[in-house]
Specification:
By secondary structure, the chain is mainly α. It is 79% helix and 0% strand. It is rod-shaped and about 75 Å long. This is Alkylation response protein AidB-like acyl-CoA dehydrogenase.
Length: 77
């Protein structure tokens, strides 16, 4: 009984370590995504000052995409 609890505890500790590593990876990916989003926003702002209708359409699609509510199992309802 004690040995199985010790094994369970060891597995739980390993699982916590694994989850912490996954959380860190998600944080890094989110930071990178934010950096890319900032860059795209800066580029679109510069392009939006032109009169090209293709640029206006691209800016509208981008704004529609970033302003939509997140979908999926983690999205708030």
């Amino acid at each position: 009984m004690i040995r199985s609890r010790i094994r369970d505890l060891a597995r739980l500790r390993q699982r916590i370590t694994d989850l912490e590593a996954e959380v860190q990876e998600c944080r890094q990916l989110n930071l990178r995504l934010a950096e890319v989003t900032d860059l795209v926003s800066e580029l679109l702002v510069a392009l939006a000052d032109t009169d090209d209708p293709r640029v206006a359409a691209a800016v509208a699609r981008y704004r529609a995409g970033v302003s939509t509510t997140p979908q999926g199992p983690d999205a708030e309802r």
